[in-house]
Structures are given as C-alpha cells and as structure tokens.
Amino acid sequence: MNAIVTAGGIPLPQEPLYIETKGHNKALLEIAGKPMIQWVLDALGESKHVDHVIVVGLTEKSGLSCKKPLYYIPNQGKMLNNFRAGVQKAIELGTKRDQHVLFVSADIPAITGEMVDWVIETALQTDEDVYYNIIPREVMEQRFPDARRTWTKLRDMEVCGGDMNVVRARLVVDNSEDSLWEKISDARKSPLKQAALIGLDTLLLLLFRRLTLEKAVEKIKKRLNITGRAIVCPYAEIGMDVDKPHHLEIIRADFEKRLTKNT
Length: 263
Known about the structure:
The protein is of the alpha/beta class. The chain has helices at 18-21, 36-46, 79-92, 113-123, 137-143, 169-173, 178-186, 191-197, 200-207, 213-224, 245-261, and strands spanning 3-6, 30-31, 34-35, 53-56, 70-73, 100-105, 130-136, 152-153, 158-161, 164-168, 228-232.
C-alpha cells in the first residue's frame, strides 16, 4: 500500500504553534534531534506493508529520508487538494483507483512501524471505502494523561480521532462534491461541526449523548454515500498529534524518556 504524508501546515501568527514555528513548516519542528516528520517517515520505512511514501507539502530540500522510496509534492493550498495530489501520485506509482491508500499526518511522531502495520492489516480485513481510527479516552489518558484532547462523547464511549487512516483511492480523486469534503476536512477537529454536517438529528443525539458508535457510523455512511468502518484503535500514539505547545512538550519529554531507556 502506498502512504501519503500530509505535511503542508504552516501555523499562522494567531495559531498556538506559531511561537514554535515562526512561519516555518510545522512538520519540521525538532523532536529528539530530528524533524517531527522524520520520525513518521522512520515508522513508515519500518512497515512491511508500505511500498512508497509520498510527502505532500515539502520538497527534496527538506533533507528527509526513508527506507521506502520517497516522493515529494509541493503544497497545493487547500487540504482537499493536497489529498488529491497525493492520491494522483499514488496512482502513478501503481495504486489502482479501487485500491486503498494510507493517509498519515506529519504531526504524529510517536508512531512505530508496528502501529502502521496494525492499521493496514486491521483495515483490510474487510473491503470498505474508508477506515477511520478512533482512540478511546481511557487509552489516550493512560498513555498521555496530560494530553487534553477534544473528545467526541458518544453514548457508549468517549473518543478522539486518529491521524492515520485508510481510504479507497477513487473516493478522493473521483468525488465531485468538493464543498462537502472541504467542510469535512475543515471540521475534523470539532465533533459538533462534524455532527452538524451529517444532520441536525445527529447533532442533537450527540449533544444529549444518545449516539452510539455503531449509529454514528451508519449515519455517516448514509449521508456521504460511502461504505466505511470505525476502528477502535489501541494505540494512543496515532491520535497524539502535535497541535499545541503543550502537546509538543509532552512528545519531547516522551521521546527523551524513550531514548534514555534505550541507551
């Protein structure tokens, strides 16, 4: 499977990480002596299921490396355009339109090759359009107790979204409902915005905690006219994206502890 790493984010002055990035690409933030994205590329390079890696948003001048063949696509502006450009490159490299690609955010540096393989193997047990990883609150808080993520409060669990997911290629390059997909990508950090996109009834069910995970998946599939599966993920690292300065502090401390233990 070909992997697409989205790395186009440059925080604006009013955003939390601007003080750390100062107008530079977020993916290049230093963590334990490497750019944040390099740790992601290291994990993809260790995966036995990843064939090629496509980085969207950076160039060869970034000085990155990967054990798997590595390709670059410049930032296309909007997130949806970055997704599409990445998938088009994956298709050039041999991904058929009805096959799947792996989308990975550049800001989850704590992942490992084992986690990448788990996501791919778990997803491809069935044949759906989209596989979306969700991390239960207890899993995240046990691994990163001070993370303070945004939780979607379902009737049967509280979850946050993961930043490594599997999508059928044609769903990205062939879908013509751009405005809906753009709204979905823009709302990815807000559970209420996500619910509103798929109907007022869903929003009310979410607000009153009457929405189960199974019901949420069914409503999304019907609204977007796709097949899909929510995967309850046991790896907090897949949802531990570096969005704010305190997330960066947590990850840096975690890497320092990990590297000290291995020396």
